[in-house]
Amino acid sequence: MEKVYDAIIFGGGIIGSCIFDDLTLSGYSAVLLEIGGDVASGTSKANSGIVHAGFDATPGTLKAKFNVEGSLMYPEMCNRVGVRLGNCGAYVIGNDLKKVEELYSRGLTNGVKDLEILNREQLLKRIPNITENITCGLFAKSSKIVSPYVLTISLAEEGILNGGVVELNYNTIKVEHKNGVYEVTNGKTKYFGKYLINSTGNAYNDMAKLIGSETYDIKYKRGEYYILDKSEFSVAYSTIFPLPSAHSKGILVTPTVDGNTLVGPTSYESDSSVKTTDLGLKEIKEKSSAMLNNVNLKKAIRIFSGVRAVVGDDFVIEKSKLKPNVINLAGICSPGLSSAPAISKYVISELMQLTYDLKKNAKHKLVPYTLSKTLPKQELNDLIAKDSDYGKVVCKCEDVTVGDIKMALNRPLKINSVDGIKRRVRAGMGRCQGGFCLDKVISIIAESNNETLEDVCKEGVGTNFIVGNIKE
Ligand SMILES: Cc1cc2nc3c(=O)[nH]c(=O)nc-3n(C[C@H](O)[C@H](O)[C@H](O)COP(=O)(O)OP(=O)(O)OC[C@H]3O[C@@H](n4cnc5c(N)ncnc54)[C@H](O)[C@@H]3O)c2cc1C
């Protein structure tokens, strides 16, 4: 007899991984099928990493409801999986007091606490590098920052640790509904499930067509960024937004939990490809320098972009009317990261009508991604005495050791990609962007996974660095 899972989840972004983990912790059997070589392969790896307070979303929308609820759930969730949450707060600054007051009252309507309106003098005391244009602002104490990919990976790993199954590089080619059970195949491995959850982000419609469920008019909006070297950290200790426009929260400057500074994103209609453009980068330069002095984009170590899937003005989170037991999650653009735990709770308890109880099956606690460089000196020395790999630095920009990389390769979710290592332990995330350590990282992955150098990928299937045989 084939195993029938309570749920098959398509797409291991923050939404799919959170639902997968929550179902597993609540005692249900779940399989997460991800087409990429890792979870967080889509938009969840390329965003601002802000857990928004919730003052921006239009009152009465799903965005407002889930943002505020989700943001309140973050401390407990991050604490459970050992993911750092930065309590840096956020400022929205500009020169239109009426708009600041509107944001303030929208925040109150949405249920956001600890909001404060500030004048220029008050702002200058906290952000000395605001430009001359800035006369007023709003402070949201509860706004936070998180690494969106470390969180997504950790949630997927916690789910695996407690009995869930994750298949990477799984490209579904057929979905059939027979005798009340869904059968899903990629041509090699079949899975059977009672519920299907479509959380494939930008690819939602393609999966919906395979399932036979609703498709939506999805528009894509690209957001481009600069990421600055750690030397620039003092430019913004909190997230600094401009006053929002009708179509976006605007170009912000924010610290990351890892000590870099993000400047971006743009927001314009695009296709779903991730690329950067001269026009977009120019806009970031103009708008960030209108808000803050000393934003030194010459200190950028990387430029990148992420793409939002947008359906009208709100998230689509509903049960399919065309197919039984199918949950549609479309247009989960910003604030999707902030909303993820609340969306997951709603999907499980309201749409699937299952018992949401994260303590029920929480048998195994996830060991957090603690990097050796963060350990106190004595603890690090003890670790090196036990395992000399922790004394061998591979990535000099970020102080990542052979031991850290091997630890990441021996976690519940098995990967064989350089980008997977980069996101887990930061090898290649620093100033040289992997220029000096790439070959060593490839060798460690191959050796540790008992694979050849040719097997190691950048990201997923078909992204192998080395094609052909390497002669000794
Ligand atoms: C520029 C930008 C900035 C943002 N900033 C913030 C922010 O600061 N705070 C915030 O709250 N939100 C923010 N967001 C929104 C947030 O990033 C998204 O809401 C969230 O990442 C969406 O997660 P998801 O799981 O729905 O989609 P994704 O992360 O895209 O996950 C979908 C997954 O499905 C996989 N997939 C695709 N097709 C298939 C298939 N056929 N089978 C299996 N798997 C498949 C993909 O590989 C991917 O891993 C931002 C978004 C952008 C673009």
Gross morphology is: globular
CATH architecture of the largest domain: 3-Layer(bba) Sandwich
In terms of per-residue confidence, which ranges show pLDDT below 50 for 5 or more consecutive residues? none
Number of helices: 12
Content of β-strand: 15-25%
Listed once per kind, the bound small molecules are:
flavin-adenine dinucleotide
Rg, Å, rounded: 22 Å
Q: Any idea of the CATH topology of the largest domain?
A: FAD/NAD(P)-binding domain
Return the CATH class of the largest domain. Alpha Beta
- Average pLDDT confidence is 96
Number of domains: 3
Helix/strand/pairing class, anyone? alpha+beta
Helix content: 25-40%
What is the CATH homology-level superfamily of the largest domain? FAD/NAD(P)-binding domain
Give me the oligomer status: single chain
